[in-house]
Specification:
By secondary structure, this protein is an alpha/beta fold. Helices cover 35% and strands 19% of the residues. It has a domain of 39 residues. The protein is globular and about 75 Å long. The C terminus is likely disordered. This is F-box domain-containing protein.
Amino acid sequence: MDSLPVELVRLVFQYCDGPSIRSLRLASGRCADVGYEFLLEPHFNAVEWRDDIKRLRAIAGHDRLRGSIRSLAFNFSRLDEYNARHTTFFQHWLQEPEERNALLQDAWIRYYELEERARQLPPFHARSTAVEEAFKRLPNLKDVEITFTKSPYDIDILKEVFQVRTCRKRDRNQACKNMNAIVSAIRHVRLASLSIDQLPLELFRLADDRRHWFDCARSFASLSRLHLVLDPPRSLLPAARSRAVNGLGHVLQYSVNLTHLSLAFHTYHAPLEKFHLSLQALFCGSDFTYAKLTDLKLEGVSCAEDDLRGFILRHGATLERLRLGGRGLAKPYEWSMGGVHLHEGSFRGLFTGLRQQGGKMPRLRRFHMEGDAEAGDYMASSREAYVFRAVTDDDWLPVPCSGKGGPGADGKRRGRGEGVACVKTVDCLGLERFLIEGGEYPQLGREVDSD
């Protein structure tokens, strides 16, 4: 092995798993030296039931290992035991009772063991100094993910229930403290990608919390990808709401070099509600434009037609892929509920206006719309109401049609108003062709009578 070129030794290491890498490094001094860079995976996943911060700090303090870490994921997800116990039982109720009981008992015993380990550790935000020191010493760190919705346990049964929103719980106050601890550390690095799901919107309201984010202006300026899922609180007075949106807008404006922007609002206290958003107010009434934006996704918002169309057209020169809506907070068997609503105007007017200005969107190649889409006043005699089923996922890979457009076998659902007629699910392929190729406006369905 010592006679092989370094390039070939590296190639051998690339085909080895973790145990094989450690064994191969014992073969010779040269293998031990070359194998250093393969000891660690480039992605580091931190969960609360392990003392991962101590391990991360140790790696960051090692001269040769610190360069291995390129991405970090912080998982703060917590399980609602009461709902999860019921859900796991019904997910496996078709199994033989003895087999089901053994399977569930093993899963819950492992869960209690991990929870006991977590209780022996100090809260995450109490270790903010260690997190900050680690970030300072990770020269190749480019991607950070913060999640409250993915299973932190390597237990298959619990991974299944984490897909159901009612099986997850969170302390909003604790979440804000943890978020501030990480954001305070982010200012020491230049990230390329930042992803946060279930981000409390009230974080951008108070001066002390906003300061942590505003201090990261230079770090946000280096971002090329930003994925934010905002969670509005149950009650937020108009003044506080305006201040929170203003603070979020400042963070978005700091991220001037974005190529991919995904902005979603998931109202956990009322999953069907859409967040009333003015894009003009979000960007402080300016005509702010991302000069490099190629991918845009908006989900779970209620906008005015002119406001939304103006924002899209401002990025028409660079925009290649556009997504409106998504899964939202739908359970695995439910129709998508993360659509986009228009409280002023109509979808026909929106898409016709985008097509008429097609010369301003020369690079648009893909369009996708998903979820419940409604336009018009609920008090009006009629309005547009559709349910768009998924055609592609967020990576633009095809989604097989399962035939589950909603709770009913026929893919139909009831509207939210009394006496609203059933709305059949449709896809967005006709709209995509219309926006990219032109032609006649597609027949998506019919308007829904409110009477």
